[in-house]
Design goal:
Radius of gyration: 21 Å
Pfam family, one: FecR_C
Number of domains: 2
Structural class: alpha+beta
Oligomer: single chain
CATH class of the largest domain: Alpha Beta
GO molecular function: sigma factor antagonist activity
Number of helices: 7
Organism: Chitinophaga lutea
CATH architecture of the largest domain: 3-Layer(bab) Sandwich
Order of helices and strands: HHEHHEEEEEHEEEEEEEEEEHEEHEE
Helix content: 10-25%
Protein name: DUF4974 domain-containing protein
InterPro entries: FecR, FecR_C, Ferrdict_sens_TM
Largest sheet: 14 strands, mixed
Distance between the termini: 26 Å
Amino acid sequence: MLNEKYIRYLIKKQQQEPLTPEEAEALDAWYQSLDDLPAEISSPAPLREETWQRLEQHIKPKSLMRRLRWPLSAAAVGLVLLGTGYLMNRTAPPAATTAQSWTVVECPPNKRMKVSMPDGSAIWLNGGARLEYDAAFAGNRQCRLTEGEAFFEVAPDAARPFIVRTSRLAVKVLGTSFNVAAYKQLQKEKITVSGGSVQVLDSGACNVILRANEEIVYNNAADFVKRTANGPQTDSWRNGEFYLTNISLEELAIRLEQIYGYKVVFADKGLKNCVNSLRFSEREPVTKVLELLKLINKVEYQIKDKEITLRGSGC
């Protein structure tokens, strides 16, 4: 019987160093076994047993006999990124309407879109994001991110600062690139700078200057933390690749909806606070992400239509 710890070990190792040919073959066979899973699926023990049995048929016996002593953190998991650079084939034309003096652009779930602004700036919207910008934008360069995540490449203009507002914060820049994540369901917002610098303000004591590769995390209690960011991983979502570090399952549920279009329901609310780190590509089916979560979180899942139900005793 194939030891599940072996797969955990390979997933962890693959994030840190190249796998041997035998290890790569074993992990690839495991991924292939997941491709056989049906679209509507539960994850009970019999199915789990069947999955491992199918996998054994693809792997050389000598690969299965290795004794493993590699510890795996219960909060770390990775998914192999397959293929070459992502082609922007999941874009959609902006659904723009005008409400009073603000133009509204909404990006559907499971899509991404690029919005070209009148001043030459560019804004990428992640799935489910909602952007509003002033009809007089060419004069004042103001916009609002009322929901979701967006990456901004701001055209330099010293005479007209570019201002992005969320429900809690204002970001003021002259010319730079930065990422804003502001989901209503979560109790925090995050601003990450890729190049240049920005000024982040709230209605109270928050007045922070962020430079390249720095970010601020701001919560509902008006507390904030400034820290070093993860570099190019910050906006990798624009290419369909996701590096999610120390995120709760509650936040992951939002991500799965924006990436795959599935609504996630927690049958056991305690699961929401379980923390994981994941690395995966949207080219991989959602079942692979769920199988990886199941390996470390004692989570069982069921997929029906476009809804995922998670159950478990917690982390």
